[in-house]
């Protein structure tokens, strides 16, 4: 029964994120917000809304291991699985200069998760508040950079965002009642509601199933919860690759990783200090930092993430999962 609840709730979460991202992107583009900013914020952050709802529910339920594990596991999954699969479908051509600032922010955000080494294994409220301030600062800087972008770059970015999300051009958009801005605002509310209820069911069923096999809370967050809540990023990136815009996956993943740490971990820590397990501080968080660092030489190699490099990332993630199942769950 719990497995059925898990699968149904995952569908509800994915549907909620899809409705939220598409409707919010449509409203923003029609309001005159550039596609460069939409792609960075609404697409990158909106696809992380399942992680936010799941981690917040886990925090309110006192499951800090699930909350923090979800953030770390999602960041690992985003790079080692989503970017890897996207590159296997179609090599991602992107210059390091194009994402240098965002990658640096993602790396800095990851390093903040090592602060608990000096705070007794806890992400305190003051650090959570600092993370949220960092997120706002990053958004302001991104917006200012966006305003300075060349018209040609903005037009290309808008075409790629619309193509990846199946949003029609304004001149071609239907004018039926369901395609109006008020209707999309209603859909945004509906998408948020689906995320809230889906997260409650998903986290509850995942914990029940995993604990029945003696799986620790942090491993639950690192595996089942993180993989499940990362489905919107996976779908968005694969669709973008199949439609000839694999570079959208880079912005989607890096934007999501930044939001996961600064936004989700920061907000959850403000609600309640987040306890980080010694294993996570010793193994999982350093691995997340290492995988983020690995993007730098990968992007320097011919300006693309090749199929071979994508395969290496995916193989590394599979080995990591095998380690979790053997060493951290008693061989379950």
| CATH superfamily membership | NCX, central ion-binding region
> Strand-residue fraction?
under 5%
Instruction: Report Rg.
Output: 19 Å
Strand order of the largest sheet: 1-4
The biggest sheet amounts to: 2 strands, antiparallel
Architecture overview:
The protein has 332 residues and is an all-alpha fold. The protein has a single domain, classed as NCX, central ion-binding region (A middle domain of Talin 1, Up-down Bundle), CATH 1.20.1420. It contains 13 helices and four strands. A two-stranded antiparallel ribbon has the order 1-4. Strands 2-3 form a two-stranded antiparallel sheet. The longest helix has 32 residues, at 181-212. It is globular and about 50 Å long. The protein starts with a helix and ends in a 5-residue tail after the last helix.
Protein traits:
332 residues, mainly alpha, two-stranded antiparallel sheet, two-stranded antiparallel ribbon, globular
Could you give a quick summary of the protein structure above?
By secondary structure, this protein is an all-alpha fold.
Set out the fold topology:
Layout: H1 2-30, H2 35-46, H3 49-60, H4 64-89, E1 92-93, H5 96-112, E2 122-123, H6 125-147, H7 151-165, H8 181-212, H9 217-229, H10 231-242, H11 247-271, E3 274-275, H12 278-300, E4 304-305, H13 307-327
Antiparallel strand pairs: 1-4, 2-3
Helix pairs in contact: 1-2, 1-8, 2-6, 2-7, 2-11, 3-4, 3-8, 3-11, 4-9, 4-10, 4-11, 4-12, 4-13, 5-11, 5-12, 6-11, 7-10, 8-9, 10-11
């Amino acid at each position: 029964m719990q497995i059925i609840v898990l699968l149904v709730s995952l569908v509800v979460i994915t549907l909620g994120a899809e409705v939220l991202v598409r409707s919010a992107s449509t409203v923003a583009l029609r309001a005159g917000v550039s596609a460069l900013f939409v792609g960075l914020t609404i697409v990158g952050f909106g696809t992380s809304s399942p992680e936010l709802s799941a981690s917040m529910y886990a925090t309110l339920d006192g499951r800090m291991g699930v909350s923090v594990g979800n953030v770390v596991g999602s960041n690992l999954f985003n790079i080692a699985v989503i970017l890897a699969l996207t590159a296997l479908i179609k090599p991602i051509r992107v210059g390091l200069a194009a994402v240098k600032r965002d990658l640096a922010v993602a790396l800095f955000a990851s390093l903040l998760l090592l602060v608990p080494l000096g705070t007794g294994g806890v992400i305190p409220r003051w650090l959570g508040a600092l993370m949220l301030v960092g997120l706002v600062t990053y958004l302001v800087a991104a917006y200012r950079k966006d305003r300075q972008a060349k018209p040609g770059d903005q037009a290309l970015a808008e075409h790629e965002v619309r193509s990846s999300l199946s949003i029609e051009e304004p001149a071609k958009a239907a004018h039926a009642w369901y395609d109006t801005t008020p209707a999309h605002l209603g859909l945004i509310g509906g998408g948020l509601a689906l995320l809230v209820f889906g997260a409650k069911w998903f986290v509850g069923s995942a914990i029940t199933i995993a604990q029945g096999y003696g799986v620790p809370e942090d491993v639950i967050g690192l595996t089942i919860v993180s993989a499940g809540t990362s489905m919107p990023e996976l779908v968005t990136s694969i669709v973008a690759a199949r439609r000839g815009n694999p570079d959208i996956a880079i912005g989607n993943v890096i934007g999501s990783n930044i939001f996961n740490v600064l936004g989700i971990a920061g907000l959850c820590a403000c609600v309640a200090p987040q306890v980080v397990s010694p294993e996570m501080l010793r193994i999982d968080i350093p691995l997340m930092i290492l995988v983020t660092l690995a993007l730098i030489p990968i992007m320097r190699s011919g300006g693309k993430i090749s199929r071979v490099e994508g395969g290496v990332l995916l193989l590394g993630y599979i080995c990591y999962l095998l380690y979790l199942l053997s060493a951290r769950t008693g061989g379950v």
